[in-house]
Amino acid sequence: MASPILFKSSDVERQWDSDSRKHPMLDLVVGDFADAAYEEAGWLPVMTSFIRTYEEDRELGGSGIHPTGRAADFRTRGVPRQAVSWAVDYLNGKYQYDPRRPSLPVAYAKPHGNGPHLHIQVHNETVLRPGFRTGGDD
Q1: With 50 as the cut, is the pLDDT of residue 26 above it?
Q2: Cα–Cα distance between 78 and 51 in angstroms, integer?
Q3: Are strands 117-121 and 107-109 parallel, antiparallel or unpaired?
Q4: What is the arithmetic mean of pLDDT over 41-57?
């Protein structure tokens, strides 16, 4: 079964479904987030942004990660604050963005760009933190 994700527009959905720049680890982390958010909080995530041009990213104050296919944004308007905080803690507790730069998060939710949203990002070195297992190991 596919992870429960809605999309702001058909353009964002098309990008997510077919853009070759989508990083495999982002696909895994977003799927994990969507499944867990729905199970834990009844939150059906809405992806608002995935691929951007470098110009669009710069105008929104981005760091250049969206154009590379390593970041996705999710709407938080109307989502209980505790559910958003839970998702941030869950993802940052389970995944490490870059072991060489441990202070950088996989997920954060704060006003930036177009407004408040949950930002999920991965690096080529993003890993599952020690102590976590993927499904099917039981």
Answers
A1: yes
A2: 24
A3: antiparallel
A4: 93
pLDDT digits (tens, 9 = 90+) for 67-89: 999 999 999 999 999 999 999 99
Separation between Cα atoms, residue 48 and residue 50, nearest integer Å: 7
List the strands of the sheet with 71-75, edge to edge: 6-7, 46-49, 71-75, 117-121, 107-109
Instruction: Record the tokens describing residue 79, joined without a space.
Output: 């989502």
One DSSP character per residue, 38-77 reads HHHH----EEEE----HHHHHHTT--S-GGGT-EEEEE-T
Q: How many CB atoms sit inside 10 A of residue 28's CB?
A: 15
Continuous segment of H or E residues that includes residue 121: strand 117-121
Q: At which residue do the structure tokens 């982002």 appear?
A: 26
What percentage of the chain's residues is helix, strand, coil (to nearest 5)? 35, 20, 45
